[in-house]
Amino acid sequence: MVLFFNGSKFKDQYRNDRPITGPLLTGVGSGLLSGLLGVGGGGLISPLMIHQGFNPKKVATVTAFAGPFSSFTAFLAYATMGSVGWKVPFFAGAAAWVGGYLGTIVRQNKYIIYQATSWVMATHWTRCMRLCRQQLFGVIMS
Q1: Closest CA to 75 of 115, 23, 40, 111
Q2: N or C: where does the chain have the smaller number of CB atoms within 10 Å of the terminal CB?
Q3: pLDDT tens digits, residue range 54-83?
Q4: Residue 47: CB partners within 8 Å, gap ≥ 6?
Q5: Average of pLDDT values for 96-106?
Q6: 99-111 burial by CB neighbour count: b if 16+ within 10 A, else e?
Q7: Alpha-carbon distance values, 105 to 3, 47, 86, 116 (Å)
Q8: Mean pLDDT of 33-47
Q9: What is the DSSP letter of 14?
Q10: Element (H, E) at 105
Q11: Is-above-0.70 flag for pTM?
């Protein structure tokens, strides 16, 4: 989302105050819904805060900051119920940390970010089309 908003063009368009109620209700609501539905809260936090008039670049940092808290809370809930196999989360968490670290390093070079973004978008588009084709035509042909 940050790639679509150039700071110089939109810098006077966003609110600069620091309200408490809107973001607080957004966080509580997205936390509740993400816990009930089992999805990440970022898909709810971002559009609601942008709708409230916040700068999308700042919303991206809020979403990145809030994500680990909701994920860790969900992890603790599953661990309390005893339904966590400890080997998989350890290796998946370590791999996610390494990937995030490497992604941040790559992000620092602006030339590489456009190549990486286009590669990721092409990969996801290809996977999406393959899945759609399988779901639509796989059922009809079978």
Answers
A1: 40
A2: C
A3: 888 788 888 888 877 777 877 787 788 887
A4: none
A5: 83
A6: eeeeeeeeeeeee
A7: 17, 27, 29, 12
A8: 77
A9: S
A10: helix 87-107
A11: no
